[in-house]
């Protein structure tokens, strides 16, 4: 069973929106602080091409941490799996997404997984190309293909705002460089990473990207395998174990679908073999996940029994 009714989806949005008042927009990246905490939108993209949506669907969001799933897929397509996982682990942390704590206590100092900032910085470091611009264009072309929109670009203001203020991520980079996990210029890596996080799209496009992961990397429109199946599976597994950071366990129990959140308030869901979900609701809970977005997914999962467990 699935939700194909716009009217029903609208009702879920109205119900979930009530939670937004209990959340807070992220402002540690100053440009994100301008978002309206009461916005909430959702799109569900089915493999047969139908897309049902509700809420403020014209709003664009920056991907932020959602981009970590996409950069991981790209890097796994460009490099040997063992090479990538020689530098970043596969285990959840139970710590906040930007924590440096485990890096110091683990030996060797490799980040525990690619969904926390430390691990994502290593993955972005592994994107191939001759310079930052070339590497960014490779990633952007991949995103355009997944979202099926050649016009996707970045929000320059958000990218600059994060680049100018992201001292904690710089600290993670320097730590990783000291321990020889990465070997590039930190400012160049920050430039690439903040552009990656500032790629913007609306919830309809986000739902399409989720649908490609749900279909194990195959684009049902063109029949093309955009991501090899085994890589799409790895990405979805990380979405289940680490996609909602240190709320991933509770999310798996209550909702039970592979999902990835970002501090802009986005959530990308991939219901295996069924559909992709794109949500935008910028008011966050204390762990950095969209508070109304999670409520919306709870309502959908309960109503349509979406849990894969
Ligand atoms: O690196 C950062 O802090 C942000 N660009 C992304 C963090 C993020 O989205 C965490 N999400 N919940």
Automatic annotation (TrEMBL):
HAMAP family hit by this protein: Glutaminase
Gene that this sequence comes from: glsA
GO BP term, example: glutamate biosynthetic process
Subunit description: Homotetramer.
Coiled-coil regions listed in the entry: none
UniProt KW keywords: Acetylation, Hydrolase
Binding site for substrate: 65, 117, 162, 169, 193, 245, 263
PANTHER family per record: GLUTAMINASE
Enzyme Commission number(s) of this protein: 3.5.1.2
Protein name: Glutaminase
Root EC class: hydrolase
Reaction(s) catalysed by this chain's protein: L-glutamine + H2O = L-glutamate + NH4(+)
GO molecular function, one term: glutaminase activity
Record-linked Pfam families: Glutaminase
Similarity remark: Belongs to the glutaminase family.
């Amino acid at each position: 069973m699935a939700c194909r009714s716009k009217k029903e989806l609208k009702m879920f949005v109205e119900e979930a929106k009530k939670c937004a008042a209990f959340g807070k927009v992220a402002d540690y990246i100053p440009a994100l602080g301008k978002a309206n905490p009461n916005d909430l939108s959702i799109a569900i993209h089915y493999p047969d091409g139908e897309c049902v949506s509700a809420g403020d669907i014209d709003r664009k969001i920056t991907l932020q941490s959602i981009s970590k799933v996409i950069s991981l897929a790209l890097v796994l397509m460009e490099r040997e799996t063992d090479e990538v996982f020689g530098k970043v682990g596969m285990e959840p942390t139970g710590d906040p997404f930007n924590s440096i704590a485990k890096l110091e206590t683990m030996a060797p100092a490799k980040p525990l997984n690619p969904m926390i900032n430390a691990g994502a910085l290593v993955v972005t470091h592994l994107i191939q190309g001759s310079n930052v611009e070339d590497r960014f264009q490779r990633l952007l072309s991949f995103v355009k293909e997944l979202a099926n929109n050649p016009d996707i670009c970045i929000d320059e203001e958000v990218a600059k705002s994060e680049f100018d203020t992201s001292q904690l991520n710089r600290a993670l980079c320097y730590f990783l460089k000291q321990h020889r996990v990465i070997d590039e210029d930190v400012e160049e890596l920050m430039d690439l990473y903040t552009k990656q996080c500032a790629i913007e799209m609306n919830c309809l496009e986000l739902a399409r990207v989720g649908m490609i992961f749900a279909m194990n990397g195959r684009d049902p429109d063109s029949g093309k395998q955009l991501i090899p199946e085994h890589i799409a599976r790895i990405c979805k597994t990380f979405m289940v174990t680490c996609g909602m950071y240190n709320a991933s366990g509770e999310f798996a129990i209550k909702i039970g679908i592979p999902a990835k959140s970002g501090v802009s308030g986005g959530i990308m869901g991939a219901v295996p073999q069924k559909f992709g979900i794109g949500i935008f609701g910028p008011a966050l809970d204390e762990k950095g996940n969209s508070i109304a977005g999670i409520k919306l997914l709870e309502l959908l999962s309960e109503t349509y029994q979406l849990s894969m467990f």
